[in-house]
Amino acid sequence: MFVFKKELFLGFKAFLSGHLSLDVVCIRQEFSLNNLDNIYITMATITKRDLVIKLSNETGLTQQEVFSVVQGALDSITEELAKGNSVVMRNFGAFQVKEVKGKIGRNPKDPSKDVPIPPRAVVKFKPGKEMKEKVAPILPLIQQES
After folding, report:
1. Collapsing DSSP states into helix, strand and coil, what is residue 32?
2. Is residue 141 part of a domain?
3. Which tens digits make up the pLDDT trace of 56-76?
4. Per-residue DSSP letters for 43-77?
């Protein structure tokens, strides 16, 4: 969560409106004891349900129709990845299945014992150019959160 004094927030609000959807950034005001407004900004987690509701409102389709399309797209992506295929969506990004090599780990309860970790297949995501450009401006928010 980020706390801004009112004076800083006015400039930051202009920055946000030009770069981020306010659906993703939740803003609320809180009054402090000395009558200054503190602005709290938190990065939201968008769920599949949130996405369905948003798309339903934008398209005029029912939530059930939108859910079927979203779930079908996710199922198709998963099926293709399970076959070892890559899924590329221009300007969004690419999903690929990669191998993570096996290694020797340590048992945290008994560090003297080696534990073999077998190789496994994992899904990697590489964002597209347009996504990179849209996400880049939130770096200051992420750095302040840490």
Report:
1. coil
2. no
3. 999 999 999 999 999 999 999
4. EPPPPHHHHHHHHHHHH---HHHHHHHHHHHHHHH
